[in-house]
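Hi F.,

I've been meaning to write this up properly since the lab meeting, where we talked about keeping a consistent format for the predictions we share between groups. The idea is simple: the sequence comes first, exactly as it goes in, then the structure tokens exactly as they come out, then a line or two of notes. No screenshots and no reformatting. I'm using this chain as the first example so we have something concrete to point to.
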Amino acid sequence: MNLIRKSLAAALTLAATLAVSAGGAVVGSASGDVAIVADDGTQVSAAANAAVTAGDSVTTGADSRADVLLGGAARVSLGAQTQVRFVSLDPGARELLIAGGTVDVRTYGGDAPRLATPSMTIRPNVPGTYRVTVSGDGQTSVSVGSGSATIVTPAGSSTLEAGRSIVARTSCNSGRFAVQLHA
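Output, unedited:
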């Protein structure tokens, strides 16, 4: 029985490694209520080494966390009550849609994912650390810990350097859009 468990663990690790090297993603760790939701709505509990494919969403519940590895390109850490859709996982065209919650992204090379939210798009320019929070009221905040990113909003684009933050607010009632840059 022990040999079967070890063989199964080795097979799962190999499958995850192959998925990541082929442009996929894999759950590095998951704690609490973490699920992978496929395009067709099928939902499974996420565990370490679970494959994430293009079109899948990863969601976390209260007091839950998950790390998703995008090959050697990035580590995406989801905080509690977060939902991220992995729109594209093709090398050179990786895109994540952050629907709600807080995501910390550490990029390692030139193949960093583009991070889309309801009010802005974040394009990391160099390896670094980036925190994105999308609240239920349509506000998106981005902080750059290290590196730099191009921020694209309906109001235009700008470069956000390390140590800087930006907040974008939208108002559904008025159609207004406001951006605030913080040092």
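Notes:
The longest strand covers residues 95-107.
Confidence is low (pLDDT under 50) at residues 5-22.

If this format works for you, I'll send the rest the same way.

G.
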